Amino acid sequence: MAINKLGTHTLETPRLILRRFRLDDAQAMFDHYCSDPEVTKYLTWSPHANIEVTRTHLLGTLQGYENPLTFRWAIELKNIGEVIGCIDMVGLHEHDETGVLGWVLSREYWGQGLMPEALMAVEKFMFEFVGLHRLEATHHVDNHQSGRVMQKGHMICEGHRREAFLDHMGRHVDLVVYSILADEYRNQKKF
């Protein structure tokens, strides 16, 4: 069974709009999360030194939308109308009908349930419309907050991949792996 090459469609939740990035998002991205060393602490990339780094990154993102297998959403908080994060398919294995998700969120909005809300909307889209069989996410062994997001998204912890991640500080660290299968998704309560 082939997956549907739909590309990034706008998704809406009670508090969020998940949409394609636009060039005018650069300042909000830089201000809310790209320049914050606490936000990027467990990621593969370092904080952006200036807005130009963010704009260059954003141009690459916009070009990526030409590929119908690109699934990358800007997370816009409805009540402020600005981008506060990103959730995207950082790996897609078309033959296996599996995808790997990644995300980042402004520190100002941590602990408010926004990332699980975004994750569940993306799960719904990827399972119900794209037709994936499995979604996976990993987190740096010390990033327990990200693990909580995965649990709230009904993902199951599969274990650790030992020293599988070279962080932006040059250290090899363990990754914790979570996943959810299409059948498991269908058996969960949907919001």
How is the largest sheet built, in terms of strand order? 1-2-3-4-5-6-8-7
Shape: globular
pLDDT under 50 segments (min length 5)?
A: none
Number of strands: 8
Q: Mean of the pLDDT scores?
A: 94
| Distance between the ends | 27 Å
User: Hey, roughly how much beta strand do the residues contain?
Assistant: 25-35%
Written overview of the protein:
- This protein is α+β, with helices and mostly antiparallel strands and 191 residues long.
- Helix content is 28%, strand content 31%.
- It contains 5 helices and 8 strands; from the N terminus they run E-E-H-H-E-E-E-H-E-H-E-E-H.
- A hairpin with a 4-residue loop joins strand 3 (72-77) and strand 4 (82-93).
- The model has no long low-confidence stretch (mean pLDDT 94).
Topology:
Elements: E1 11-12, E2 16-19, H1 26-34, H2 51-64, E3 72-77, E4 82-93, E5 98-105, H3 114-130, E6 134-140, H4 144-152, E7 156-166, E8 172-181, H5 182-186
Parallel strand pairs: 5-6
Antiparallel strand pairs: 1-2, 2-3, 3-4, 4-5, 6-8, 7-8
Which characteristics define this entry?
191 residues; alpha+beta; Aminopeptidase; 8-stranded mixed sheet; 5 helices
Summarize the structure.
This protein has 191 residues and is of the alpha+beta class.
